[in-house]
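# step 3/5: fold
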Amino acid sequence: MAVRERVRVGGRSARIQSAVHEAVRRLGTETHRGELTVPQIAAVAGVTPSTIYRRWGDLSALLADVAVQRLRPVADPEDTGAMTSDLRVFIEQFMEEMSSPLGRALIRDVFSTSGETYPVQCGGFTKEHLATITSRAKARGETPFDIDEVIDHVVAPIIYHILYGDRELTLDYCHSLLDRIRSLPQKNLTALAPA
């Protein structure tokens, strides 16, 4: 289950969050990440450093919060008209976005804090997208895939290679992961067989 932020829309808390997030994004384009400081961010955002410490605790938690906000989906996955192609397009886009230099930096920020809040939120985004694809499949009369199997056998290897940088990720690699789950001996995965 995804963790939801508890910020009142339009309230003072939301305005502070917006100003601080914008300051982090702006400074991130002008300053090397290792040189960012809470006082510097606070000055650009027009708040006191204590406001940032009170709300986020430390710089790594703030950077993780900004990363989660930037990774939050702005739209549903593309609807191609068939589950197999919906999943294929989603996985291709996921790999391309997450393995980009910006995507890699955001993922590092998400995992840089202690605790599970930020990684759980990001994992929730992926599960929500996969659930949307399976819901569409059901509505079209297709047998949906098992979301956990796709996460275990497709999403997890992609994230592993991004985090550890031990392999160049390609579309062919993503397609091979999708092909591999088709061969798993579970009835829900037979739905991924090519038509």
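# step 4/5: annotate
The CA atoms of residues 67 and 180 lie 31 Å apart.
# step 5/5: archive (pending)
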